[in-house]
Amino acid sequence: MAESHAAPRRVLVTGGSGLVGRALQHVIQQEQEQEGGAREGEEWIFLSSKDADLMNKEATEAVFQKHRPTHVVHLAAMVGGLFRNMRVNLDFWRNNMYINDNVLQASHEVDVLKVVSCLSTCIFPDKTSYPIDETMIHNGPPHESNFGYSYAKRMIDVYNRAYFEQNGRSYTSVIPTNVFGPHDNFNIEDGHVLPGLIHKAYVAQKEGKPLVVWGSGTPRRQFIYSLDLARLILWVFDTTKSDGQFKKTASNVKLMRYLPDFAFTPFDKALKDTCDWFVANYDNARK
Q: Could you tell me the end-to-end alpha-carbon distance of the chain, in angstroms, rounded to an integer?
């Protein structure tokens, strides 16, 4: 379906109070302050779980009918670190399938012009060659530790293709590496690796005890700062700049072809800013 660039945009962000949703809000606010005004012709609506239970079909339909968005950034998901995934793989599968099915079908029913969903590199096959890219998503089973979450997220790629082939819908995805930043979940037991380590280091320093890091130290990971990911999502979202389906994966060759001048935040600075935010907001941070 062709998109009219002159028509106003009403952008609905699911998961708007989470790590990436809050980063999007921050980047949009920065643009408003730097450019002297809002993104022209756009209204942004950031949903949280308090606004609607997206695992419930009727509740999802109701909130989409209420706001009738023209565009959707789909970030909502049941997420967690390694150990939580291992404990409740079935919950991750079922809950994320409910959310994704409801959000994409509701988008179709209110005639949303474009949906950009956020996936994760953990959906890729466990046994694969590197670097990974978007052509390799379905080439084998994911790691057994988080197969429920991984398969549910993979299905968004299937949904995107099916909605395009059957209904001509422009639904696409970005696939970032491990995301971190302010407003992350810093829970030591159930959070992801970086926020969990930040919290452990904070507690160790406060209590004057050694920092104990779980695992062997041999696995290798890539990370992306949440504010950088927000900037990339806005670029993908802007159809005047993007062309076709775009996915930010562990291989950034495609990204650099489209955005050769994109400047990622230096890792040391991004990590320091995240640590500073956590310390300053310790009492209210998710943990």
A: 43
CA gap 257, 249 in Å, rounded: 13
**Whole-angstrom Cα distance, residue 267 to residue 281?**
21
CB-hemisphere CA count at 13 Å for 139? 13
pLDDT band at 31 (very low <50, low <70, confident <90, very high): confident
194, 274 Cβ separation under 8 angstroms:
yes
Give 180-199 pLDDT, tens digit per residue.
999 988 988 777 788 888 89
d(CA 80, CA 187): 9
* Residues 69, 75, 76, 78, Cα dihedral to 10°: 170
Report yes or no on whether pTM surpasses 0.85.
no
CA dist 122 and 176 (Å) reads 9
- 225 as an active site residue: the answer is no
**How many residues are present in the chain?**
287
Instruction: Give me Rg for the CA atoms of the chain.
Output: 19
Residue 66: how many CB atoms within 10 A of its CB?
A: 13
Hey, what are 214's tokens? Answer: 């779980």
Quote the CA–CA distance of 134 and 138 in Å, as a whole number: 9
Reported as a single tens digit per residue, the pLDDT across 85-101 is 788 999 999 999 999 99
DSSP 98-137: HHHHHHHHHHHHTT-SEEEEE--GGGS-SS--SS--GGGT
Catalytic residue from among 98, 130, 149, 225: 149
Residue labelled with tokens 């009738």? 68
- Can you give the three-state secondary structure of 262-286, one letter per residue? CCCCCHHHHHHHHHHHHHHCCCCCE
Helix (H, G, I), strand (E, B) or coil at 41: coil
